[in-house]
Amino acid sequence: MTSGNRSEAVDVQKSYEVRTYGCQMNVHDSERLSGLLEDAGYVRAPEGSDGDADVVVFNTCAVRENADNKLYGNLGRLAPMKTKRPGMQIAVGGCLAQKDRDTIVRRAPWVDVVFGTHNIGKLPVLLERARVQEEAQVEIAESLEAFPSTLPTRRESAYAAWVSISVGCNNTCTFCIVPALRGKEKDRRTGDILAEIEALVAEGVSEITLLGQNVNAYGSDIGDREAFSKLLRACGTIEGLERVRFTSPHPRDFTDDVIAAMAETPNVMPQLHMPMQSGSDTILKAMRRSYRQERFLGIIEKVRAAMPDAAISTDIIVGFPGETEEDFEQTMHAVREARFANAFTFQYSKRPGTPAADMEGQIPKEVVQERYMRLSALQEEISWEENKKQVGRTLDVMVAEGEGRKDGATHRLSGRAPDNRLVHFTKPSQDVRPGDVVTVEISYAAPHHLLAEGTPLGVRRTRSGDAWEKRNAAPAARPAGVMLGLPGIGAPAPLPVAATPGCGCD
């Protein structure tokens, strides 16, 4: 058969594995990569395959200094496996692929495909081309070819879904390489976003998270500064959509109309992840962040005035170049004032290709570590105090899948409260599924979770639970096989067809 023959298929089930590193955008992209591969006839390898698949895809991140070491270490472990398995293919995509391009094939010549952040839809074609031509295929698009949400998808959850509203970023933070790798911000049409959400809800999804590198800047590409708040309000009109979240916003673009939309739209959850990065005005200026401590704390104050029960989390970088003890104390002060429910704290790591990597005043590792430990201890204390305020409250918890590692041993279930706090609760007498909602009373608080030890007060079986049950009860469909010729791929018809904190750059 020739590569032009699209009608014949191998009667063999070729398997795939996708390994994801990085932020929610990468997680969302990996769902698309899985969907593309399954659309081309591949089947997902069993959990724990550890490289024992016909195609292994690395969806990479480039924000940490050692990102490339991690990738090449994993690629090195796969090299002998590939030698023993004729026909096995390895692909590398994502931010590191966009940055390093030909370097990957030079350092790991057994890699078959390298693709970038803008052309994930080409993966099956590139795999087939590498197989036919018997040489590595490197294809890095410089601009977005198709919005990710127009591609096939294999969602990990039956009840919750990411919905990308924009890609790229217009900010120039000195510690962040994302704009160079994902490009300038490009917004989706509001109608396309709402059509995707409606299609997801029709499939049983009841919770969506609006996703963007700088999510609340949505509208800058179309010239409407209130586009994001209008989008939140429009989500409130979609019947069957119970929970709306978004990540990650930037303080610069967090305007009063967004706060009002959050407070006045019932299905927008009382939760906000707002990256602060530093509490020092000096360091914020060096980071090229367009706000200062007073502005940031003012936003937090307004959010709490509008939504007293809102849980607010943040990202903080410790040890940015030039950070003095006084600068660090300003961060500690801001954390005490903001009283975050949770904070994702990072020790500054050089991101190759960023201005900060070449700045003077790089902080010794031992100093960064000591400050990091002090900050972590303070935030742990605040998180615990804030969680203790939840004791005695009655909460509607959406049952989650895989959130409670000890659920089997403790005979409990786990899920998320409206403000996204993790809740472990006593298993009800009646059967419940992920996506169902259980009403509980909080009896105990730990720094990172809540506990409801009493008998649940109520159970509401939902369409999302039905969708989860249907997905898990359905026998696995036998795929048609992988085309020996070039598979017929490309962006599907328009909709309806059909996120750990971010990378710390929002």
From TrEMBL:
<keyword id="KW-0963">Cytoplasm</keyword>
<dbReference type="GO" id="GO:0046872">
    <property type="term" value="F:metal ion binding"/>
</dbReference>
<keyword id="KW-0408">Iron</keyword>
<protein>
    <recommendedName>
        <fullName>tRNA-2-methylthio-N(6)-dimethylallyladenosine synthase</fullName>
        <ecNumber>2.8.4.3</ecNumber>
    </recommendedName>
</protein>
<feature type="binding site">
    <location>
        <position position="173"/>
    </location>
    <ligand>
        <name>[4Fe-4S] cluster 2</name>
    </ligand>
</feature>
<comment type="similarity">
    <text>Belongs to the methylthiotransferase family. MiaB subfamily.</text>
</comment>
<dbReference type="InterPro" id="IPR013848">
    <property type="entry name" value="Methylthiotransferase_N"/>
</dbReference>
<comment type="function">
    <text>Catalyzes the methylthiolation of N6-(dimethylallyl)adenosine (i(6)A), leading to the formation of 2-methylthio-N6-(dimethylallyl)adenosine (ms(2)i(6)A) at position 37 in tRNAs that read codons beginning with uridine.</text>
</comment>
<keyword id="KW-0949">S-adenosyl-L-methionine</keyword>
<dbReference type="InterPro" id="IPR038135">
    <property type="entry name" value="Methylthiotransferase_N_sf"/>
</dbReference>
<feature type="binding site">
    <location>
        <position position="23"/>
    </location>
    <ligand>
        <name>[4Fe-4S] cluster 1</name>
    </ligand>
</feature>
<comment type="subunit">
    <text>Monomer.</text>
</comment>
<feature type="binding site">
    <location>
        <position position="169"/>
    </location>
    <ligand>
        <name>[4Fe-4S] cluster 2</name>
    </ligand>
</feature>
<keyword id="KW-0479">Metal-binding</keyword>
<feature type="binding site">
    <location>
        <position position="176"/>
    </location>
    <ligand>
        <name>[4Fe-4S] cluster 2</name>
    </ligand>
</feature>
<dbReference type="GO" id="GO:0035597">
    <property type="term" value="F:tRNA-2-methylthio-N(6)-dimethylallyladenosine(37) synthase activity"/>
</dbReference>
<keyword id="KW-0004">4Fe-4S</keyword>
<keyword id="KW-0819">tRNA processing</keyword>
<keyword id="KW-0808">Transferase</keyword>
<dbReference type="InterPro" id="IPR058240">
    <property type="entry name" value="rSAM_sf"/>
</dbReference>
<dbReference type="InterPro" id="IPR005839">
    <property type="entry name" value="Methylthiotransferase"/>
</dbReference>
<dbReference type="InterPro" id="IPR006463">
    <property type="entry name" value="MiaB_methiolase"/>
</dbReference>
<dbReference type="InterPro" id="IPR006638">
    <property type="entry name" value="Elp3/MiaA/NifB-like_rSAM"/>
</dbReference>
<feature type="binding site">
    <location>
        <position position="61"/>
    </location>
    <ligand>
        <name>[4Fe-4S] cluster 1</name>
    </ligand>
</feature>
<feature type="domain" description="TRAM">
    <location>
        <begin position="388"/>
        <end position="456"/>
    </location>
</feature>
<dbReference type="InterPro" id="IPR002792">
    <property type="entry name" value="TRAM_dom"/>
</dbReference>
<dbReference type="InterPro" id="IPR023404">
    <property type="entry name" value="rSAM_horseshoe"/>
</dbReference>
<feature type="domain" description="Radical SAM core">
    <location>
        <begin position="155"/>
        <end position="386"/>
    </location>
</feature>
<dbReference type="GO" id="GO:0005829">
    <property type="term" value="C:cytosol"/>
</dbReference>
<feature type="domain" description="MTTase N-terminal">
    <location>
        <begin position="14"/>
        <end position="132"/>
    </location>
</feature>
<dbReference type="Pfam" id="PF00919">
    <property type="entry name" value="UPF0004"/>
</dbReference>
<feature type="binding site">
    <location>
        <position position="95"/>
    </location>
    <ligand>
        <name>[4Fe-4S] cluster 1</name>
    </ligand>
</feature>
<dbReference type="GO" id="GO:0051539">
    <property type="term" value="F:4 iron, 4 sulfur cluster binding"/>
</dbReference>
<dbReference type="InterPro" id="IPR020612">
    <property type="entry name" value="Methylthiotransferase_CS"/>
</dbReference>
<dbReference type="InterPro" id="IPR007197">
    <property type="entry name" value="rSAM"/>
</dbReference>
<dbReference type="Pfam" id="PF04055">
    <property type="entry name" value="Radical_SAM"/>
</dbReference>
<keyword id="KW-0411">Iron-sulfur</keyword>
